[in-house]
Structures are given as C-alpha cells and as structure tokens.
Amino acid sequence: MRYPTLIMSLLLTALLPLAATAGKAPQKATLTGKVLNGSRDNQPVAGQEVVLYTLINGKEVNAPRPKTMTDGSGRFVFRNLDIGETLAYYPLTYYGGVEYSGKLVKADSSRSQLESDIILYESTSSDSAITSEMHHVIVEPGNGGVLKVTELYLFSNRGNYTFAGQFPIPNAKEKFVVLQVQVPEEATEVKYGGDLMSCCAVINGNEIIDTMPFKPGRRQIFLSYVLPYSGTSLAFSRPLYHPVKAFDLFFTDPIRLQAFRVQRAGSPEATAVDNRTERVQFNGKDYNHFTVRSLDKGSRFELAFAGLPEAPRDYRWLAPVVLIALIMFVFAARRKCAPGKPNGRRQDLRSAIQKRRELIEEILALDHRYEAGEIEPASYTARREKLMDAVLQVDDYLSSLSSEAKGSTGHETG
C-alpha cells in the first residue's frame, strides 16, 4: 500500500511546475505569413526576402532587423519575438523597386502566434486604371483681396498592377510622374498633405507631382492656397491630368459662380456647363454647391467668379511718385520765390510744403506698418485714403498760391 502512495507523490511533484507555469503568459512570439502576388491571382512568391520591423509605442526601432526568405509556398516565419503591451511588428519586402508590407500586429500577453501576409503587385507604366473619384474645391473670401482655397482629391487605382509612372521628371533622378495636380499660377502660400508625402512630392512651377508608386487602392491629396484678385471678379483655368468622376465646388456668399466651361480633349473650344447651384451646410457654414460629373483626362475646365468682396486699393506704389513730385515742386517753388522779399505768401508756402512733407512721411510709415502686418487691411485703406485726401487738399492750396504768385509777378513787371 505504500508503493501507490509513493508513486502518487512523485507524480504530484512532477506536475506541480507544469501547473505553476500553465497560467503564465508566453515569453516569446512567432510571426508567420505568406507573400502573394496580387497581379497573378494571389499566387505565392517563393524565394522572396522579407524584413521584420519592430515598433515600440508606435515608433520604429532602429535595431538590426531580422530577415528571412520565403519557401516554395511563399511562407515566411520569424520566431523568438519579444512580447509586451507596447510592442508591435510588421513584415516588409521589396518587389520591382516598390515596397510592400503586411498588416501591423501586436505581440501582447494574449497571443503568441501572429499572422501577417504581404500582397505585392507587378508594376505598369499605364495609367488606364487611375481615376480621380472625387475632386472637391472649397472657396472662401479672405482678408485683403484674396480667396482662401482648399482642394481635396480622392484618387483610385482600380487595377491589379502598381502604377509606377509614365515619364521621368527632369532634374529629379530616378523619379517618375505618378499623380499630377496644378494650382493657379497666381496662388501663394501653397500647402499640401494627405497621402502626399514630402519624400515623394516634387514642385515644378505651379504643378505638384507625386512620385510614389500607386498600388491598387486609394490615395488622398489635400491642397490649400491663397489666391489674390483685384476688383470683384476672378477667372482661371486648370488642366485635368486624370479623369474625374465627380467635381464638386463649394463657395460662400457673396461669391457667385459666373461661369463654368469645359474644353474637352481634342476640342478647340470650351463649352459652358449649367452653373446652377444648391445650398448646403457643413462645419456650421452655409455653402453654395455646384457639381459636374465625368470630366475626361486631357480636358480643361474654366472657372469664373463674380461678386467677390472688393479688394482694398493699394496706394503703396504712389508713395515714391508723390515724393518725387514733392521734391520737384519744392525746387520749382524755391526758384520762383525771389529772395529778400519776405511776405505772407512765402510763409504760407513753407507751411504748406512742411505739412505736405509730414503727410507723405505719415503715409510711408503707414505703408511700412501694413507691409509688416501690424495693421488690418480695412484700417490701412481707410487711414490712407484720409491722408491722401489731405495731401490733395494741400496740393490745391499750393496750386492756388502758385497762381497768385504768377499773377503778382506779371502785374509788377507790367
């Protein structure tokens, strides 16, 4: 009877460590996946190098990255990976000079077996599958005779090939034009974002070019810029480098859409499009909405706005002219005033000239503050107009003094 008891004791002693470790979380993880060719019905890709990237708290670790090769079935494995709440991994490979990655997976205490496949594609130089699904343009009046414009492009590659570009960019080594958009030539403060990254964006004049190969899927491009104008109207035209399924224009009052014309590819003339609008609201604002569909690649659209807030008149260019005129006037007045004959007119002339000089100096100082951004356009315009009116009044007075001097001179010599 003692032997069964001894055997049971030995079994319990052997099983206790196993029971103690059964509740513990695994210390290492394994990541597996396959590399598949999406251009060839997801056939496995054998002999493909795969690199594993590690992230801690969302940031990539610069430590040496493990590498492996896919087997005959396109499968790859990474073993003995650390586990932690802040750790995550994703596999990456290069194919045809384009990088493809699998999904990001977290290696936390709840799982030790991770999976992440990589789907890659053959490359093509044909853009037949590239379309602008949506092109939104939002226009709002700014301060000082400018329009604030925001644009959103939603491009799609509906094919099963990666579009790598058709032609190279001059002076940009080994970079090809993949997506291309344009802003008006007069645009300033141009900014871009979305999926358009600084590493792959090339600015060529008023064109913004994306050189990143376009894999099957979607890509967004954001643009914003300031468009100056004079008067109360503005017109500009733009080429379409890609077909557009839906073009939507949003603009706030008092802006009016005067005309929208489309010049189709190969057509010598632009055709007017019905420019009726509807009222919509978003972000707490009321907008006028205009839409047109199915714009072909190679077409060109023309926009004409009216009813813009009148741009403040800029008198800064007058300052040098007025100053030169003042110098010439003073020089001429001095020559006409005979020395040694003090009188009331001469004193009045000097006072008027001094007053005019002070006004000009005040205008120049105001211009300097305006250029430095220290004064609002509306205040600047109102103050400058008052100063210019004062200058004109002094000029009228100086002219009257000059006429009196001429009349007196003629009487005395006669």
Task: Describe this protein's structure.
The chain has helices at residues 2-22, 318-336, 344-371, 377-413; strands at 28-37, 43-44, 49-56, 59-60, 67-69, 75-82, 87-95, 98-101, 105-106, 113-115, 118-120, 123-124, 130-141, 146-157, 162-163, 179-182, 188-194, 201-204, 207-210, 217-228, 234-239, 244-251, 256-263, 271-272, 278-282, 285-295, 300-306. Strands 17-20-14-13-22-26-25 form a seven-stranded mixed β-sheet, with no helix packed on it. Strands 3, 4, 5, 7, 8 and 9 form a six-stranded antiparallel β-sheet that branches. Strands 1, 2, 6, 10 and 11 form a five-stranded mixed β-sheet that branches. Residues 18-23, 337-342 and 409-414 have low confidence and may be disordered. The chain has three domains: 2-120, Immunoglobulin-like, CATH 2.60.40.10; 130-306, Immunoglobulin-like (Sandwich); 318-413. It is α+β, with helices and mostly antiparallel strands and 414 residues long.
Relevant terms:
414 residues; alpha+beta; Immunoglobulin-like; 3 domains; 7-stranded mixed beta sheet; 6-stranded antiparallel beta sheet; 25% helix; elongated; disordered C terminus
Radius of gyration: 37 Å
CATH class of the largest domain: Mainly Beta
Strand line-up of the largest beta sheet: 17-20-14-13-22-26-25
Count of helical stretches: 4
The proportion of residues forming helix, as a percent range, comes to 25-40%
